């Protein structure tokens, strides 16, 4: 038991890196995903096609490959040639990747709203922007909570991929202790940390779903 307690402090330090990446990714990917979704369903076909190609690329290639590309290959790309430190590289890769997934969720949510509501808003004299902000998007958020919950929980687990960039996240700290102490106990403790984080997120989204269900009743 004393050994497990001794693991908690370094594990928490690693968990802070994990949580930091999670929070920044959410703050960046959700607004970016919403913007991409709005462009995707817009009447500008060239922009819509470009966004569709971007979403296809980000969803069709592994996140780890995107991480490695941004960190190792991006500096050698002509014209761009940007070298990012390890953590900013992880932020860029995760934000761009999850924005693509959120964009598809948002697009489906927006398109699930009955077209009659657009027509009703037009009769009331609302602009397209006002219709989206006041009528469509509030209903969309209610409908997309379950898939957003799934993606958010997946994000917590995907943060473990940053070990390839030698960042001292929760999994890398646990792996170092396993190699040092020749015991799998740190992996079990790390698993408990991940389970705790996903449990909290599950409770939050369940509360939001119940709250919206009460308002819709």
TrEMBL record:
Matching InterPro entries: AA_ABC_transptr_permease_3TM (IPR010065), ArtM/GltK/GlnP/TcyL/YhdX-like (IPR043429), MetI-like (IPR000515), MetI-like_sf (IPR035906)
Annotated TM spans: 20-42, 63-81, 87-106, 182-205
Coiled coil start-end: none
Subcellular location field: Cell inner membrane; Cell membrane
Highest taxon of the lineage: Bacteria
Pfam families assigned to the protein according to its UniProt record, in alphabetical order: BPD_transp_1
Keyword annotations of the record: Amino-acid transport, Cell membrane, Membrane, Transmembrane, Transmembrane helix, Transport
Signal peptide bounds: none
Name of the featured protein: Amino acid ABC transporter permease
Species per Swiss-Prot/TrEMBL record: Comamonas nitrativorans
């Amino acid at each position: 038991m004393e050994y497990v307690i001794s693991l908690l402090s370094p594990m928490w330090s690693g968990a802070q890196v994990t949580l930091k990446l999670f929070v920044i990714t959410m703050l960046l990917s959700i607004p970016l995903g919403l913007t991409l979704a709005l462009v995707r369903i817009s009447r500008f076909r060239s922009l819509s096609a470009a966004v569709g190609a971007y979403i296809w690329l980000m969803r069709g290639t592994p996140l780890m490959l995107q991480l490695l590309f941004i960190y190792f290959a991006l500096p050698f790309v002509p014209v761009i040639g940007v070298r990012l430190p390890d953590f900013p590289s992880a932020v860029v890769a995760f934000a761009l990747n999850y924005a693509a997934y959120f964009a598809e969720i948002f697009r489906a949510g927006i398109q699930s709203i009955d077209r009659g509501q657009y027509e009703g808003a037009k009769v009331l004299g609302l602009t397209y922007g006002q219709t989206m902000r006041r009528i469509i998007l509030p209903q969309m958020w209610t409908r997309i909570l379950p898939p957003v919950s799934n993606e958010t929980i997946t994000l917590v687990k995907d943060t473990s991929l940053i070990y390839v960039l030698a960042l001292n996240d929760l999994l890398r700290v646990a792996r170092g202790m396993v190699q040092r102490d020749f015991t799998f106990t740190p992996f079990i403790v790390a698993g408990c940390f991940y389970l705790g984080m996903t449990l909290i997120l599950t409770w939050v989204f369940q509360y939001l779903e119940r709250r919206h269900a009460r308002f819709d009743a």
